Amino acid sequence: MHTLDSSKINIQISSEKEYDVFVGRGFHDSLFQKLASLQASSYFIISQKGLGPFFFNDFLDQLKKHLEIPDKQICMIEGGEENKHLSRLGPVYNQIIDAGADRKSVILAVGGGVVGDFAGFVAATIQRGVRFVQIPSTLLSAVDASVGGKVAINVDRGKNMVGAFHQPELVYFNLDLLKTLPEKEWNCGLAEMVKHGFLDSQGQIYPFLLENTVHLRDPASDLLKKAVMDSIAFKASVVARDEKESGLRAILNLGHTTAHALESFTEYSRFSHGEAVSRGLVTMMYLSEEILGLPEADTKSMIDLMQKLNLPLDTAGISADDLLEHLKYDKKTVGGIPQFVLLRRRGDYEYGVKVSEESFQKAWNRQKAQFG
Fold first, then answer.
1. What is the Cα–Cα distance from 199 to 252, expressed in whole angstroms?
2. Which has the closest alpha carbon to 19: 165, 167, 188?
3. Are 43 and 169 in contact (CB under 8 A)?
4. What is the DSSP string of 197-246?
5. Prediction pTM value
6. 269: exposed, middle or buried (Cβ count in 10 Å: 0-12, 13-18, 19+)
7. Are the beta carbons of 111 and 78 closer than 8 angstroms?
8. Which residues are CB-contacts of 349 (< 8 A; sequence separation ≥ 6)?
9. Domains with residue ranges and CATH for the chain
10. pLDDT tens sequence across 18-44
11. How far apart, in whole angstroms, are the C-alpha atoms of residue 163 and residue 167?
12. Band (256; pLDDT cuts 50, 70, 90)
């Protein structure tokens, strides 16, 4: 499925497609050499405003110099989920076309998960598909959005409702970028890593996270690096077995059905993705207890890990009725009935589980009573 050394994971999608994910510190000449080796006719950067001087005064300048990228081939978008919207595509398409993109061009996605999804969708659709590279700037985009080739944009009725499967040529994550990561973004990444720990049937990720919680917000820690590599490797193993979510890959939506409803109800303006996922994982546990018989001891243990990582578990003053309407817009909903990924035990999952409105209300109200 994947091979792993101290800084690289190889993802084998098929006999025709594989790519490497690199996790390191700093931006080195070897990265620019790898990008140059793609032998693109031209390189385009899609990035986001507000990434800070480390990117704009250092890395982007190096990219422009090494790859001869003029300013007209750099597209800057606003950050935030609301800017990963269908309405934002037109100006970016026009800029890239006007700058002379062709089928041998390569798009570099430089930023968080919003940029990775958005730029990947542009790459998948312009000229009927061009190559692209993921250079994530956040923990969440490193362990989740940049790996696996799912790219998408939002529409008014829901998140990621328009998308494609388009694998990158390579991924590079610079751990040094975490030195300025806000708490919200730490929550985002850690919530996804916790999710992988809950799903891991080998039972290796969860105990490592639990044992090393005090190190998992330290960018300089090699224990954090190992946790990041383990999380990426887990997702890689799932993607390699089911690239286009025809079955197994659906497990990666653990906690996400509720999370997407939270994001949609609040118009993507109140919660970071990880804050919504964290709350959705708690709902998932309570549903799992009722529907699949998840032992309360497993729930208690998983919640203990989340609390040690200071992840949000409350219902944020939102009612079950508010969320039920937005659950209908989830891509996994069939015939108006939400489909959840649930757990029989930690590491033992079932996907496509139908959940009634009554069961959801019961779980959400229990969560409210427990955590506010």
1. 8
2. 167
3. no
4. HHH-TTS-HHHHHHHTGGGTT-TT-HHHHHHHHHHHHHHHHHHHH-TT-S
5. 0.89
6. exposed
7. no
8. 199, 251, 254, 341, 342, 343
9. 2-180 (3.40.50.1970), 183-218+220-228+241-371 (1.20.1090.10)
10. 899 999 888 888 888 999 999 999 999
11. 12
12. very high
Whether 134 and 114 have beta carbons less than 8 Å apart is answered as no
On whether the CB atoms of residues 365 and 320 are closer than 8 A, the answer is: yes
Q: Looking at the DSSP assignment, which residues form a beta bridge with residue 4? A: 9
Residue 341 has pLDDT above 50, yes or no: yes
Tell me 334's DSSP state. B
Residue type at position 269: S
**What does the CA dihedral 114, 78, 318, 158 come to, rounded to 10 degrees?**
-60
**Which element (helix H / strand E) includes 256?**
helix 256-265
Given a cut of 70, whether residue 185 has pLDDT beyond it is yes
Helix or strand holding residue 344 (H, E): strand 339-345
- The C-alpha atoms of residue 330 and residue 341 are separated, in whole angstroms, by 13
